Amino acid sequence: LTKLISCVDKHEAMALALCCTSLSFSNQFSGVSRPTRALVSLQEEQIGFQNPIEEAKRAAAADKAGEFCYGLPGALPPVGNFDPFNLLDGKTFDQVRTWREAELAHCRVGMLAAAGFLVQEKFHPLFSGDGGTAIEQFDKLPPVMWILITIGIGACEALRISVGWSNPSEPNHVFQKLLPEYVPGDIGFDPLGLKPTDPEEFRIMQTKELQNGRLAMIAAFGFMIQEGVTGQTWGTALGRPDF
After folding, report:
1. What letter would DSSP give residue 161?
2. Rounded to a whole number, what is the largest CA-CA distance in the chain?
3. Could you check whether the bond before residue 191 is cis, i.e. omega within 30 degrees of 0?
4. Helix or strand or coil: residue 77?
């Protein structure tokens, strides 16, 4: 009987050891695989052309090296590191990303607006405009155009927000927080295939977009002030009413 009990105890100990070994192996395996799956998942969910992981690493290295604005494109002579009110002091990379998203959105709208002032006062084939200043033409559009324009703008903004912005219902959400897999302004839109394949050339194109957008915002503001004050088109104000 004593031998039988001893034999049973040995079998139970052996079974328990095998069970613990199996659980230990399973736990180690899952612990190693989780970050790998998370990394692969983030790479697969990359939204635009730029890799957000590489951009975050580059920004961290630039900040450590003391570069302006986390080394983001857009700073060049003669203005250089332009921040007269020191708004960047103490700001995190996530906060700067949100500002860059806003700047790019306004740059692109500014370029469209400036082009609209130059073109639409004389060329508006989609509706029966009567010429005159651009700031007065919108009021003369058919009401259905107001609805279509509003829907179009809303659709563009809804797409941008759904692609790059985090869900407000998520824990620890802050206002206008961007998704970690999203690079500001990069929704993968390049229908004409103009994006350079060389990273340095792509960075130069990013700077050009920012510089042209900043100039366009000032130009559009100037058009509005000039037409509001003089009541004349830009061509007439320059002595060229044919434009």
Report:
1. H
2. 118
3. no
4. coil
pLDDT at 34: 36
- The confidence score (pLDDT) of residue 77 equals 85
Secondary structure class of 165 (helix, strand, coil): strand
- For 130, left (φ over 0), alpha (ψ -120 to 50), or beta? alpha
Beta bridge partners of 178: 165
The count of residues in the chain is 243
- Stretches where the chain sits below pLDDT 70 are 1-45, 126-130
Residue % of the chain over a pLDDT of 90: 51
Strands (E) in the chain, as ranges, are none
User: Pick from 80, 108, 76, 84: which is nearest to 184 by CA?
Assistant: 108
One-letter amino acid of 145: M
In angstroms, the CA 91 to CA 83 distance is: 13
Q: Are 117 and 234 in contact (CB under 8 A)?
A: yes
The pTM of the full predicted model, rounded to 2 decimals, is 0.76
3-state secondary structure 166-192: CCCCCCCCCCCCECCCCCCCCCCCCCC
Q: How far apart are the two ends of the chain, measured CA to CA in Å?
A: 112
Cα-based torsion angle of the residue sequence 91, 202, 67, 85 in order, rounded to the nearest 10 degrees: -50
> Residue 9 has which token pair?
């105890």
Distance CA 47, CA 188 (A): 7
Kindly report the number of other CB atoms within 10 A of residue 145's CB atom: 13
Number of helices (H) and strands (E) in the chain: give both, helices first: 7, 0
Q: What Å distances lie between residue 47 and 100, 164, 173, 184, 218, CA to CA?
A: 17, 8, 20, 10, 31
Residue showing tokens 């509003």 = 150
